[in-house]
Amino acid sequence: MPGESRLRLRFITMAWGEAYIKELFEITLAAALAPGNLPAVAPQFDCDMVILTEEGWFDRLRQHPAFLGILKYCRVELRPIDEFITRPDAYGMALTYALFRGFEDLGDEMVNVHLVFLNSDFVLADGSLRTVAAKILKGERLILAPSYCVVAEDVAPRLIARRDQEAWSLVVPPRELAALTIAHRHNTIRGKTINQRVFSMEWIDQFYLLVDRDTMIGRQFPIAVISMRPERVLTDMGTFWDYGIVSEACPTAPRCVIGDSDEFLMTELRGRETARLQIRLGWPSAKQIAAKLYRFITADPVELAGHTLVLHAGELPPTLAEAKAELGRFVEAIRAFLVAPLDHKDHYIWRYHYPTFQKLRADYLASRGSPLPGFDPPAERPPIPSPEEMDSAFEAAAAGVTADMAPQQISSPATARSTPSLFGDRVAGLAPMLKPHLPDIDPIRRAAAHRARDRVLVVSSNHLARRLFAGVGKTELRVDDVLSAPCGQSKTSAQRGSIGPPGRFDICICELSEADLVRSRKLVDAVRPSVRAGGTIFLFHWNRDMGRFELAQQLINADALVFDFPSRIYSGRTLDRADSIRRWDDGLAALRNSSVRMQLRGVRLLAQAMWSALTTNLRGDAVACDRLPDACTSVTIELEVMA
């Protein structure tokens, strides 16, 4: 028989819950039916597919166009996983056992079968499986590749719209899917991008760097297993899939990582609100990130994070090598702290979930008349370490590592390398170091060094309690005018022409109220064409109460700080400056009074404010870079405009 001389290959995919089952059959399997995927692979192998899902869906799914389409190329079997999905907080364990069910029936034969895994929310570019097949035929036993998360609500309708209804195939070339992925990347990618440091995720296990508008590179803890032929027979699972399957199934096999999206691209659909509560303004240091990772990380992900991944919608840029080195420095600083990752075989999170998971599983099977063989619930649960104990263990394990790396050590944007100028003199007319506002304007002051006034655009809100940038730029506009006019042309400027031709300005300073800061994403889109590539857009907001930045969560919820440029955040720390600023304001107000007594009081208050400002500014810790302190006077967001 022809099939007996071919390598055996099994596709394994799964989904549970109506939304994910529909996503699997409407999008994921349609992408697998693209010409360069399953149709290209099936003739080269003895293929079958196992679909793991809820038993109640079997009859409907057997009639689905995706199921019928796959039958043209390989055998298909539906297998139930109802016993694994009885507890929503044990997703990792349910996924592990579901995937294992996809090949445990092979028994001793599993070491001779190439297993290809595809989750329900993974969408393949056309030709991706052809690449995997070619590597298998060349002898690769373990193949890994990244997935990149996108906003499902934005991307899924676009994918469905281009699906061929007759063939039920979704054909998206790699660079088209890469462009879609970069344009609609999820916050869980944006919040893990080291040169976009306005916000970050609480837990960071992936690291990205935006090279240009068409290119992003990354490193991931872990990288997804796409295909493996186990080196040994597995009879049960004792570890989470992503954190131990490589060492369990293929401990000595070379790791073949497909890092270039031209060869293999897998986009992962993720709901817009997923992990929103984990978003924080600013960025942690390498040690702070490592301390979080240490609570769950194992050796496999730490090893795999040494591979650099490239997602690109165009030709590779000439700056790619420099970008890889930049990303590598930061990730290697993190890996230096993870010298003693947890044992995947005795992971305390697995131990915590295992008894309850198996008890619920046994109860479910017993209710169906199929008791779980060999399951004897442990009489006593092993001790589970507390977060505090894990933190202490991390400090002990990382005691020999002395060099930390703060995010501001990442080179781009480059404001901190600029030279101060007399820009600060334009703000209030006195020597900058004597002003209590200096730390707040200092990032902008440095970036504006030696810039001609007619190359600076100032956009300000209509109602501001404090104006620090009036008169700085030759062109000054109002936010409402910029946002209400088409193509960057404002009502205010209509009488004297548009904002200017593309790239007219080197710097745009947007001085914003609370309401306009929430609209900052739209404002940046409006002014960006007027700022040259390599120029800078600043968003400046004075925190009127000079305490906690109460607007932070509103900005996160509105996606107001989701930008497509390298970025960073600065915060003017309150420290002891609030009193100086109030004295400054009171002093200026008193000087405007006609009473000589009040004017003398104003002089005294200004002198006190200037002396206090001088001592604070000389101390050099009045501005926080890439993080948000507990209390602040201002927030500045810097955006580096890309071509």
In short:
This protein has 643 residues and is α/β, with parallel strands linked by helices. Helices cover 36% and strands 19% of the residues. α1 (18-32) packs parallel to α4, α11 (286-293) crosses α13 (320-337) and α23 (577-591) packs antiparallel against α24.
What does this structure look like?
The radius of gyration is 29 Å and the shape is elongated. The protein has 2 domains: 8-337, no CATH class; 415-575 and 621-640, Rossmann fold. Helix 1 (18-32) packs parallel to helix 4. The chain is built from 24 helices and 22 strands. The model is unreliable at 413-430 and 487-497 (pLDDT under 50). The strands form 5 sheets. Strands 3-2-1-4-11-6-12 form a 7-stranded mixed β-sheet, with helices on both faces. The chain has a 7-stranded mixed β-sheet with strand order 17-16-18-19-22-20-21, sandwiched between helices. It has a 3-stranded mixed β-sheet with strand order 5-13-7. It is α/β, with parallel strands linked by helices. 36% of the residues lie in helices and 19% in strands. The N and C termini lie far apart (58 Å).
Number of strands: 22
What topology, given as strand order, has the largest sheet? 3-2-1-4-11-6-12
The count of helical stretches stands at 24
Query: What is the first-to-last residue Cα distance?
Result: 58 Å
The helical percent reads 25-40%
- What value does the Rg take, in angstroms? 29 Å
Mean pLDDT: 90
Describe the protein's topology:
Blueprint: E1 8-14, H1 18-32, H2 38-41, E2 46-53, H3 58-62, H4 65-71, E3 75-80, H5 91-101, E4 113-119, E5 122-124, H6 128-137, E6 142-145, E7 148-151, H7 152-161, H8 174-183, H9 187-190, E8 199-201, E9 206-212, E10 215-220, E11 224-228, H10 241-249, E12 255-257, E13 266-270, E14 279-281, H11 286-293, H12 299-304, E15 309-312, H13 320-337, H14 348-367, H15 387-397, H16 425-428, H17 438-447, E16 456-460, E17 475-478, H18 479-484, H19 491-494, E18 505-511, H20 514-518, H21 520-527, E19 531-542, H22 552-557, E20 567-573, H23 577-591, H24 596-619, E21 623-625, E22 632-640
Parallel strand pairs: 1-2, 1-4, 2-3, 6-12, 7-13, 16-17, 16-18, 18-19
Antiparallel strand pairs: 4-11, 5-13, 6-11, 8-14, 9-10, 10-15, 19-22, 20-21, 20-22
Helix pairs in contact: 1-4, 11-13, 23-24
